[in-house]
Amino acid sequence: MKRSLTVILTGGLAAAVVAGFLALRPGTSAADPTKTKGSPAVHVAAPSETSVQLPIGQVVLFSSGVGYFQREGTIDGDARVDLSFPTQDINDLIKSMVLRDMDGGHVSAVSYDSNAPVEKTLQSFAVNLSANPSFAQVLNQARGEKIEVVLQQANAAQPGTMTGAVMGVENQRIAAGKEPPVEVEQLNMWCADGMRSVKLADVQRLRFLNPIMDNEVRKALETLTLSHDTQKKAVSLNFVGEGKRQVRVGYVIENPIWKTSYRLVLGKAKEDKPFLQGWAVVENATDEDWKDVRMALVSGRPISFQMDLYTPLYVPRPTVVPELFASLRPVTYSGDMNAKRDLVLKKMEVQEEELDEARRGGKGREKAKDAPAFGKPADAKYATQLRQAIDGKMDLGAAGVSTMATATKLGDFFQYALDKPVSLPRQKSALLPIVNKDVEGTRVSIYNERTQAKFPLLGLKFKNTSGLHLSQGPITVFEGSNYAGDSRILDVEPNEERLLSYAVDLGTEVNPVLASDNGRLTTIKVVTGILYSTTKLRETKTYTIVNRNDAERLVLVEHPVRNDFHLTDDTSKPAETASDVYRFEVKVPAGKTATQVVTEERVIGSQVQLTNSNDDQMRIFINSTVSSPKVKEGLKQGIALRWALNKTQRDIADQQLQLKTITDDQARLRANLKEMPPTAAAYKRYLDKFDQQETQIETYQADIKKMQETAHQQQKEFEDFLNNFSAE
User: Fold this and answer.
1) Which of 299, 300, 294, 433 is closest to 357 using CA atoms?
2) Does residue 490 sit within a domain?
């Protein structure tokens, strides 16, 4: 908590911020035209001006972790309002605070303790106390200042008081008898009779004769004192005007979200409508008691964020040194035009009567003022205890608890405006009744295999006929006067249906059985040598439901929604389709068994390049009943062309094998001829056989070449046919 910062809020800014944050917009009265011309001078209230207290008069809690707080009161003439906030709330305060002087005055300034580091603040004073300076160091910082010094008088000849200007403090070595010399701090002063030096240890008291210097030291010490309290920051609001006036201060700060909890009573008879009672859980997390405050609870999640506006930001600047013999200035550049857009704030004028209507749903201010605050002992009709009626039913609607909130729609949000003022001590919580309505509902048993594999859950097919938006929260369910279980709902709009489950239905058992096939071809077509086919996979799950209860059960079977599967036409239409499940309704009489069959199909598409497929694959498509005659004929022709090509390739392989046999035998003949003399009888026989083999080699080579040419041609005919073949 250092030097004060000053923020100016004009009436237009206040009105614009109010429009953005308030669900219950405060009114305004026209200001005196003579006081609105021109820009009012900035005025920060002096300590002598009147300081008044503004109690909290209105609280609006949001379900996004913030709350709007409005302080209201009467001031007279120029006044200052002193408030104190936790340090963590200052950023939100700077971001959202709006002030309104309702009767012709104006807001002069808002000052608050700076968040600058204490060292930086201390460095700004004439005497820097940031480094815990010694007596001598303080005097060295004050060189040239006039001071008055009171000294210890060792003898009558020594003066008791001296006046002069500080020249500085130096260390001198002074002999101490037989002991070694010691260093002594000497204060050098310029006095009326010249320069004088006194031991600093002899100075009893010293004060600055310059009032400005004296004030600087006092401020530095105050800064050190205030820096010890880091939990709270002081905020001063300054109003300027004449006479008594109504003023309002509103701001949005962090606050615990308000929560809801419900009680749902189920009647024993089918015709009995369920009764829903809702309570809002609110918390006063501030350090101030709420006394007779107007309260509204908004169900909505406006975007809210934090930004550090409190910490001073300093931009580093370069040091520019002039060139020698030149008088140069730093270069300046034109600014970004996009960063200089003016903010146009529209002043909003809202009458006080409209505010009261919005707060209380048409009920007058006088009636609200006369109403006792909720939570007082005299407020017996708002007692929160649940009691059991004589007929065995927990009749909450006649149990002395009535709704104390008026529900209204606010655009995309929903608001509960409390009809009576609320008093709540600081750091306390309260339960406030906001819903007391009969609703529509049908008892069901809800089965979901992933939730409970064997038993369904007892539940209610609940329809929100309360006319109110129901915020998410827990529900305690009672059957008659007995506790039945707990449930939970998410946000429910008026007339929206939602399922609730609160217990396991042990008297009903479900057995799911899954069956699936291997798939069947449904379509086949060929487009330029690529065969496209679709295959349908069918899965059937049969839910067998056994009801061992003595009453009929309406069972809701939840079957998962799978994006790649769709229900077949022979499956009964589900009663509901949620984002993740189908819900099928099955009525099961007492002691009976029923089934729910869910059949789904999945279509799988595939494609095959015919030139890369084998004959077995092609025969599967030929034998399929979904293939057209044209497709079958083309595939058969493709098989025939492939067979002719394969036959030629086999002939080539056979000829190459025979050629290899002869070639290998020639190696044997060459070896024999080399070892045998030419005159030997066997030499001529080997030579004749070698000559015959050469003739055979030439014949095989010619035949292989011819067959390779044939195979090449057959390969081309096969590929050209299939690549250009199309049929459906």
Assistant:
1) 294
2) yes
